[in-house]
Amino acid sequence: MFDTHVNLHGEAFADDLQDVLGRAREAGVRRFLAICDRFDNFPAVHAIAKAENDMWCSVGTHPHHAKDFTSLTPEMLIDAAQDDKVVAIGETGLDFHYGYSPEKEQVASLLTHIVAARKTDLPLILHTREADDQMADILETEIAKGAFRPLLHCYTGGEGLAKRALACGAYFSVSGILSFKSAKDVRSVMSEVPMERIILETDCPYLAPVPMRGRRNEPAYLAHVAEALAALKGMPVDEVKAITEANALTLFSKVSVA
C-alpha cells in the first residue's frame, strides 16, 4: 500500500515517528507521501522525507494559510519541486467551511499552485470543503488553458464535483471517512468513481478509520481504509490494495524513478 497523505512534521508524531513508521511498514505500507501544509514548513517536511528511503513529499500551502503567503509565486514552488523527493504540488484548494483565509486569497493561492503543477507536470493535491461548484469551475477553466493532474484528496464532495473532476482527468483519494457510519453520502459518490481513479490515504494524525475511531491516526491504519473501500466496491481487499497502489504510482510518477 501507498499512504498518499501523511502529516508527520507536527507535534503529533514528534516523540515516536520511527515507531509509527515501523508499525506502518509491518502493516504493509510500502511508500509514504508527506504533505506540506505551509510553504515555511517545507524544510521540515522535506527533511522527514529525505531521511526515509520509502518516503517522498509535496510542496505547497493549505487554503487555511493562504492569507499568510500572498507573496507565494509559481516559481518558488517550481524551484522547490526540482528536488528528487518532491513529487507533488500542494496541498492547496478551497475551504469555505472554516474561512480561515478570505476567498480571494484562497483562489489566488490555488491558481498559483495550478501554474506550478502545470509547469512541473506534478500532481496537484486539492483540498475542497463547501466549495464544490467553484472548484469545478476553476478546474474546467484551468484545464482548458493547459493540462495538469488534479487529485481531490480525502474526498467528501458531492456527485456534481466528482463527475466534473472525472471529466478533467482527476484522481480521488479516500480516507478513514469512508468507514464512518455517518458517511453515507461519501460512500454513495465513491461507489460511482471508477477504481482506476482511486487511491488510499490516512491523512494522519486525523480521521482514524473504524475500528480506530478516537485514536491518533497513523499510517498503519491504512489497511482499514482499504477494507472500507473493498466493502464498498465488493472486491477482495488484496485486489483493492494492489489496484490503488498501482494507481498511486501512476499518478505520482516521479516516485517510481526517484
What would you note in describing this structure?
It is a single chain. With 258 residues, this protein is an alpha/beta fold. It has one domain (2-257): TIM Barrel (Alpha-Beta Barrel). Helices cover 39% and strands 16% of the residues. The protein is built from nine helices and eight strands. The protein has helices at 17-26, 42-50, 74-80, 103-120, 132-145, 159-167, 184-190, 222-233, 237-251, and strands at 2-6, 31-34, 55-59, 86-95, 123-129, 149-152, 171-174, 198-200. It has an eight-stranded parallel beta sheet with strand order 1-2-3-4-5-6-7-8. α3 packs across α4. The protein is globular. The model has no long low-confidence stretch (mean pLDDT 97). InterPro entries: DNase_TatD-rel_CS, Metal_Hydrolase, TatD-like, TatD/YcfH-like. This is TatD family hydrolase. Belongs to the metallo-dependent hydrolases superfamily. TatD-type hydrolase family. A divalent metal cation 2 binds at residues 127, 153. Keywords: Hydrolase, Metal-binding.
